[in-house]
Amino acid sequence: MSPAPPPNWHTLAIEPVFARCQTSVDGLTAATAKQRLGQTGGNHLPQARPPRVWRILWRQFQSPLIYILGLAALVSVVIGDIKDAEFILAVLGLNAAISGYQEWRAEQSSRALQQLLKIRAAVMRDGEVCEMDAEVVVPGDVVWLESGNRVPADMRLFRTHNLAIDESLLTGESLAVLKQADWQGQAATSLADRKNMVYAGSIVSRGRGRGVVVATGTQTVVGQLALDMIATAGGKPPLLKRMEQFSQVIAIAVIVAAVAIGALGLQQGYGLVEMILFGVAMAVSAIPEGLPVALTVTLAIAPIAWPSAG
Predict the structure, then answer these.
(1) How far apart are CA 270 and CA 263, in angstroms?
(2) Is the whole model's pTM more than 0.70, yes or no?
(3) Which of 170, 196, 215, 289 would disulfide-bridge 154, Cβ 3.0–4.6 Å?
(4) Which of 189, 213, 182, 185 is nearest to 200 (CA)?
């Protein structure tokens, strides 16, 4: 098994890198690579478990507007107005089914796209270059890079020819970085300035190169970022936050209006049950229970309907 990578591969000459990875310019044998794959695991990023269907459906009911409609349905049952309760529950169920189905389809499409975009790599095995899935690349493999390739793992370069890498995924730098195999840096050299290293997920803009794999999977730079993202609770997008604020405003307005009109009706001599029915009817009519679905559909078709620039 290849030893755990030291923190500063970019400070080493290529000979010590080969020695630490127990490999050579001819790469690994198929038997050695298979053994290391069993020890290090596949070269893929960690993924959060997909949400269960019942959790997706439950999320569709977590809204102040839905709470009020549910309360209105409960009040309708208590006072014996079953038809209104059935209608409200039918609307809530339809809304949850449509929204939940859309979210489930989006999740399935995302995972299908991840399978479609699997990376292929040109790897030296048994002294010959062969193309294989990047998931079976292991530390110590020698990988050939050329223009258009996506880098399959973190690698220390040992041969380059006009090699430039787009590392914007990691550094945010829009310009491609020219790499040099014979360059050596200091321990404090930032990731963006390590000219003898390429990192998983970056793209070859031009040129050719060869490198030895020093880290795969979660041991790569992008793998560590993925672990941090999974461990961090996801925030809400600004649009969702504004929708929640809008829902809260509507909910408060409906409750205040129902209480005020109910109190006024009681003063005018109307019965309590009659005013409760009126309040339920007003809540159902005032709350746009189809708003989440309408918003989702609008956002889905907007890129198609929006005129292209220029």
Answers:
(1) 10
(2) no
(3) 215
(4) 213
